[in-house]
Design a protein that fits this description.
The structure holds two protein chains of two kinds. In chain A, a hairpin with a 2-residue loop joins β3 and β4. Helices cover 71% and strands 6% of the residues of chain A. Chain A is mostly helical. Chain A has a single domain, classed as ABC transporter involved in vitamin B12 uptake, BtuC. In chain A, α4 runs antiparallel to α5. In chain B, strands 1-2 form a two-stranded antiparallel ribbon. Chain B is globular, with a radius of gyration of 20 Å. In chain B, 74% of the residues lie in helices and 1% in strands. In chain B, α1 packs parallel to α13. By secondary structure, chain B is mostly helical. The chains are: A mainly alpha, B mainly alpha. The interface between A and B is large, with 49 and 46 residues.
Chain lengths: 343, 327
Amino acid sequence: MPETVRHTGMRRSAALIWPALALLLLLTLNLLKLDHGRVALSLDFFRFTIVDGHLYGSLIDVLNRAAPALLTALGMTLVIATGGVDLSVGAVLAIAGALAAVLLTHTSAGVGAIVAVALGASLLAGLWNGVLVAALGVQPIVATLILMVAGRGVAQLLTDGQIITFERPAFGFIGGGYLLGLPFTVTIAAAMFLLTAVLTRLTALGLFIEAAGSNETASRYAGVQVGLVKLLAYGGCGLCAGVAGLIIASDIQAADANNAGLYFELDAILAVVIGGTALTGGRFSLVGTILGALLIQTLTTTILTRGVPVEYTLVVKALVVLVVCLLQSAALREMLLRGRRRA
Amino acid sequence: MRLPLARKNVPVAATTLVCVLLYVAACLRYEHFFSWLVFINFFGDNAVLGLAAIGVTFVILGGGIDLSMGAIIGCTSITVAKLITAGHVHPLIAIGLVLALGAAFGAGMGSVIQFFRLPPFLVTLAGMFLARGTGLVISQESVDIRHPLYTAVSDFSALNIPGTGLPMLPATALIFLGVLLIAMYTAGYTRFGRNVYALGGSEPSALLMGLPVGRTKIATYSISAFCSALAGVVHTLYTSSGSAAEAGKMLELDAIAAVVIGGTLLTGGVGYVFGTLIGVLICGIIQTAIMFEGTLNSWWTRIAIGVLLLAFILLQKLVQARAAGRT
């Protein structure tokens, strides 16, 4: 037992090294370029250009495109830290986008009000998950499976099964605008990250979340309101998914209830796990989640810019997941240690 | 109030009751719903979902989870289609090959879960990406299959039962029902089946009892992947084509939903393969009823299945709470 205690203690600080190293490796890989069969140094991936006061470049593109997954993964981190998981983020994201699109096309409401309504709906969806998990004690996978199955149906109901397109510059700014030279999505992601970090690390909330995830019964006896903590985590996760949904809808100027955020829950969970947050709960790393989300997006962008056929993306992703998970596997480390001792 | 049946059977009994009530209600509401053709189509049209759901029932009974079913269906369907059309391999050889590959793939995922102590959720997620990705690498477009054997199978499915004017069960339904019977026997009446239940009930206890925990766990994932591969083959029989992108899309969640509606607990150790059949049939009846309604709005199916999921989970909670209150 002391062995495992030491492991977790060590991993807390060391956990960030693996995703950081992987990201660095991937970026270094982008320094090299195959030129007529010879490997040459190239800074193409790291080049920035300024057009009309806006920054452009592959790295900016990575940040911009990673924003929705990053936001979803932020909320997911909190849920996973409580020992749960939220499968419904893709569906919630689709609902937020669909609701915004319907309101934009069928009413004359202001963009601010529409954003508020869509975010309110996604917060409600998250709280619904939270009530099922915290108040009724339903397993998180099952509880959120309900909304995952039904939620996309609700989104399709809202849009009547159609892809709703709209044109509203003020709304388009969310996903396509620029603030201080950077894409506005990056600003949103950074703001949400800071907000989450402040809420969880400067208040006791983060500690409560970790307590609820590591030992629910003990936390309850220690006076932690486990139910409330979980409710907040799921609510926050729904809200984050809603923001991501608005970004996606705004970016493509349309709401596609069928395909928006398809398999998004899996990418979000992946980002969280790559970032060193264990699926068993009890501890979390927001910085790790950011590294995880950036790693996934850098991988995708690298594959695209390298001219590797798109269909290989999933295969490469699967292999990266496996390798990162194996690196974090205590069992594998033990096996290797034992082997070294014997040798 | 005392129920005349064991408490652990309440969820599956309730599910069966709901299934029958739904069927009767649909028969009363829609003309022509009560027909032999509609009835056999519940099995024929849902064979792909049903096979995957039967496979994942074993994994869930053993306390695990599998997310790779849909992707395996896509991958096997395109592999079979490509082998037959581009490789000119005989369909039977192609089918045998993908079934073996499927079982091996599942055993691989199970081994990683068992030996490296990684969460099944993650490993099968990686497996899902790998299978879907491999399928897309093989071909991104769907491939039509033209082969005498496939024609023979579809001719066979169009036959009538001798002596009556009634159509026979299609080949896909026969495969589904055959696998169902084997699975029910395996789960309920074999040593392996008992081991799976024990493993799902409590892994440490199963280990202390000296049961082959590792072998059993790996076998459940292998069974699930094999059933999914078979579902992929059935998909090619059903549509006479293979598609890496479309076959089995989002099916893993429908299959898990069918298992849960069928009264199996996701925590493992409690449930029946028969329940999964009922879960699949309920999804089929809802889908057909919505089709008869004439709206063709598939989203109502999703909402209805979500509501049913909720109802059954609450029922299970109630049963568990009563059980806890008595002891």
